[in-house]
Amino acid sequence: MSAKIVLGRVALYALLSAVTFLVCFPLVWAFFTSVKPKEEIFRWPPTLWPESWTLENYRALLEGKQAYFQAGAAAASGPPPSAFFLDWFLNSVIVTLGTTAISTIVSTLAAYSLTRFRFPGQRAVPYLALVGYMVPSIIFVFPMFLVMADLRLTDTLFSLILGYVCITLPFCMWLMWAFFRGVPIEIEEAALVDGASRLRVFWEIVLPTAWPGIIAAAIFTLIVSWNDYLFGRVFMNSMENLPLTVGVMHFFDGTHVDWGLMMASSVMMTVPMAVLFMLLQKHLVAGFGAGAVKG
Amino acid sequence: MDVRLEGLSKSFGSNQVLKSLDLTFPERRFVTLLGPSGCGKTTLLRMIAGLEKATEGAIWFGGRRVDHLSPGERNIAMVFQSYALYPTMDVAANIGYGLKVRGMAKPERAEKVGIVAKVLEIAHLLARKPKALSGGQRQRVALGRAMVRKPDIFLMDEPLSNLDAKLRTTMRGELRRFHLDLQTTSIYVTHDQLEAMTMSDLVAVMDAGVVQQFGTPEEVYDRPANLFVAGFIGSPPMNFAEVELGAEGGRPVLRLAGTALPAPDHFDLAGAPSRLVLGIRPQDVSVAEPGAEGAVPGTVWMTELIGSERLIEVEIAPKLRFTAEVKSSVRCALNAPATLRLDPGRIHLFDAATGQSLARRDALRG
């Protein structure tokens, strides 16, 4: 190996290490902050590695509601925000899974028909859908709020699911449309000649081939609906109906910020997405269909 | 089972790609649809398969009208140009899919797949996915998928066009052999005349949505029905020149580049127009001694060695060149005078206006 190549490699690894550090540092910092006692969080100069470890913040989030009712404090000043953490978490899970299921299924079926059936405007629809996606959500959110209010859906998880489907569906459809265009139609024709019905062809031939595209669309929807703040902030108002992103904002107000709870919440919000991504990313491998057709 | 087409037409919008075809593919024969790109041959095959709907006309398989049936109900098998293997299934599942759809039990399916795989010499590949196969292996899997169901009709859409030249030659022989063994009516689409000539019992030469000629490979080669077929079949292509029909000493002659050639007697020249097109294959042109009877003088324009033969291109009139295919031992210098002799028994004549052959039926030497 020549010196030039070695130098190139060293430079590359240095750059990659720097980028990795930039990406990982906030996560590492959040995790360490979440396991520090309050006094240590505010100590100056700050410590990266906790001098003493505590799971107090996690306990407050996971057992907050139970502790509040056991203490019999309900009548006094109302439950603290941490008592709602599990509700928020469950809300986010329901909304995210609901949105992902609807967006993925509808976009897959829509994109398939856009690539396989001839009708006027067949080529224009995917591009128009993409243009819709380019408009910022803030422009949609208030008209949508009025619609939800008319439908008496505000402050329901279903309103959030509908809102997220509206913003994720166009891109998912475009993604799946681009994907299906790359799936050779001869594969389906071969299955039709083999005697399969159209539905069976879709189920047994098209879907397994389209799996990486479906996973990509699902990951996109998961991330958007799990991380969204705007729709949750506008559509929801009851403490127990909030999604996680809006709920954790109650850990600080004008006078006080509870960094320990904020960071513990952040870690618990990040972990499910990270695990899911790690599980699914192997399905995203490109070139899955190579060899199916000529070449 | 024979396949009969009755007044079959197909249009895409205002573009008519098949024009009222009437054609019968006889039972157990290997019939090739041969023609240039865009002539409608693949569309016709897809209509027989049920993948395209006919605009007009009917398709019969034996005594059963099938044009309203879905592909799966026609009991056909098709080999696609791109192989169209199912990418997520292994070879065994690919071959056995048609049997699975028909509800055959797994052990029986595995047995049938095994038999076909053995015949095609791909038994060792059954657990592999298509992407792990070479082009030739994929081709065999596609064939296996077609063979395993014992279909009434085999349809093949340029199945060899993605293989390299050597493999194509091997597979050509194998396909022919499979056909002889299975004796299933087969319809094969290609633009490669060599494939059509070597593999087929019958060839349908198509152009512009019309069957120009339907006959045995010998018939379309030796007795082309019109100028298109004459020019399309044969390599190197047939030489063409406009000639004038006249008479000398009471006998009809063809005036070609200042030379009067006696008109061969296998033509129906009574009432023929005076403007004709003469065609002759390079294999039927030889280099002759100057002054020989019926010889056409000219100048050597180019020579090409093509193995055991040599092509000699001779300019017999300004911008009119004839090619002769001769033994490689025959040598000619560029720009040297040369005289060509056209085998009178192998001359073709066509009406210059309609392009139709003037040959009397069964008159040309086979």
End-to-end span of chain A in angstroms? 34 Å
Give the proportion of residues in helices of chain A.
over 70%
CATH topology of the largest domain in chain A: MetI-like fold
Total E-strand runs of chain B: 20
Under CATH, the homologous superfamily of the largest domain in chain B reads P-loop containing nucleotide triphosphate hydrolases
Q: Could you characterize what this model shows?
A:
The complex is a heterodimer of chains A (295) and B (366). The radius of gyration of chain A is 24 Å and the shape is globular. Chain A folds into 2 domains: 52 residues, no CATH class; 204 residues, MetI-like (MetI-like fold, Orthogonal Bundle), CATH 1.10.3720. Chain A has 295 residues and is mainly alpha-helical. Chain B is α+β, with helices and mostly antiparallel strands. Chain B folds into 2 domains: 229 residues, 3-Layer(aba) Sandwich (Rossmann fold); 112 residues, Nucleic acid-binding proteins (OB fold (Dihydrolipoamide Acetyltransferase, E2P)), CATH 2.40.50.140. Helix content of chain B is 23%, strand content 35%. In chain B, the strands form 4 sheets. In chain B, strands 6-7-8-3-9-10 form a 6-stranded mixed β-sheet, with helices on both faces. In chain B, strands 13-12-11-14-20 form a 5-stranded antiparallel β-sheet. In chain B, a hairpin with a 3-residue loop joins strand 16 and strand 17. The longest helix of chain B is centred in the middle third of the chain and has 18 residues. The mean pLDDT of chain B is 89. Classes of the chains: A mainly alpha (295), B alpha+beta (366).
